[in-house]
Each structure stands twice: as structure tokens, then as C-alpha cells.
Amino acid sequence: MTRLLVLGSTGQLGLALQRLTLPRGWEIQTLARADLDLADTGAVETALRAARPQVVINASGYTEVDKAERYPELAFALNSLAPAAMARAAYALSAPLVHVSTDYVFNGEKNAPYLETDAVDPINVYGRSKAEGEAAVLSSIALSAVVRTSWVFSADRANFLKTMLRLGETRRDVRVVADQRGRPTPANELARICVALAERLLDGDKNACGLFHCAGAGEATWADFAEAIFSEAERYGCAPVQVQRISTAEYPTPARRPANSRLDTTKIEALGLTPMPWRDSMRDYVKQLLR
Fold it and tell me: Are the C-beta atoms of 102 and 148 separated by less than 8 Å?
């Protein structure tokens, strides 16, 4: 039996991983924040060694982008120091590690989708902490893959899709930023591809090592994404909602956001791992939440 250990099991990706049909002969173990203080690197290494997994997926992290500006030490502890500890423990166990990172490692100034070879230049604390975390994993001697993703959504936890549906219950118009562009990523697709990479690493496939971009097929602005959600919601009896397209300047936040979050997925598609269009999963999630 192959033991897969998932850290961050109560987040969007962690829950999607637990619903996934795993490869034959695999079983899943989970460690949530309630089980393990990820800010304690010694405890992280001890917990992994005690679990003795054959493969590890790190779906954990500090993801509250605006709060990270107020609590940088916590963000760096969970997004940088903890992954480094996981990599050390994974190497000691000879267990491959798949670590999930973010589009926010880029400054968003490029006029085309970002490649894995593009230099990172984060513009907020969250992005800097995640950039350090992925660098720690990639520079370790553990057999590993780092998967950058963007705009993750699902039927679980707090995310953009659920926020729009909630707002649509009481509002007939919603102001949404229209000058930030990215590729929304369904959590179920991200989970599928993380497991596929983990399986290949476990089989010794060196092509599965390194840095990869994984994002749902198709581009959108946040306003485009909102319009698609509200349009789909109407099919289930929800009242129409008008999206008012605004600029980033009209919606100030404590942390700056990159204007361009598009990730090029050519490299991971070359492995035969092609993400589904985000609109397809969006429709499934809306149906799940509203039917």
C-alpha cells in the first residue's frame, strides 16, 4: 500500500484531494492545521517522520493575502520555513514531495502568460513568502515538484465563486475588478494533476521533477469570472446580477495584486497533464451549490 500524506487537508485543495479517486493501491493520510503547528518546523519534521509516507503533497499554507501584510512572520513561517522542513523530512524518508505555490510570485507586469523560466518578483508579503517556500523546496535535495497555480475555486471554503453567489443572494449589481487577468483553476483539476505528478515522481520519472505551472484552461478577468458565475446561477432560478466593471484603483486592498496572473501551462501539458477549461468545472460547482 502506498501512503500519500496530504498537509493542509481542510483547505480547498486538501478537500479535493480527499475526494479524488487515487491510483490503485494508494491510501491517503491527512494532517490539518488542528493536528500540527506548521509554524513549528521541528514539529513538522517529527510529524512527517512519524507518518512515514511514501509520497507527500503540501496543500497547506497561509493564503490570506491582505492579512499577510499585517502578519508577515506568520506568512513566512507557514509558506517558507514549513515547506523547507517538509523537504528535509521527505528526503530523509525518500518520499517525493509535491509543493503548491502561486502566481503571486510574479509582479504582473509581463504582457504575456508567465513561463516557469521567468524571474520571480513578488509585490506583496504573501508572494514573497511563497517565492521563498518554492525556492527552499527546489534547492533541497528532496525529489520534488513545485506546482504554481492561480485563482483556485471550488464548492468548499471561501473563494471567489462562493463569494459571488453569496453576494448575488441580496444584490442586483456587484462591483468587480476588470483590469486583473488570470486563469481560474478548479480545485479538482489541481488535485488531479498534483496526484499525477506525485505518481510519476514515485515511479522515478525525472521529467516530473522541478517547477510547473497548472491553471484552468481559458483566461478571464475577475469581472469576466463573475459574469460567468451569475449567468450560470440564473439557470437555477437565481435573479440576474449586473457586474459593474471597475479598476483596481477603485477597489484598494492592503496588499497589491498583479495585473497579469496568467500562467503558461505548456510544460505540464507536455507531460500529458492538460487542465480542463475552468468554465466546465465552474458549471459543475454552481450546480452542486445551487441545485
Answer: yes
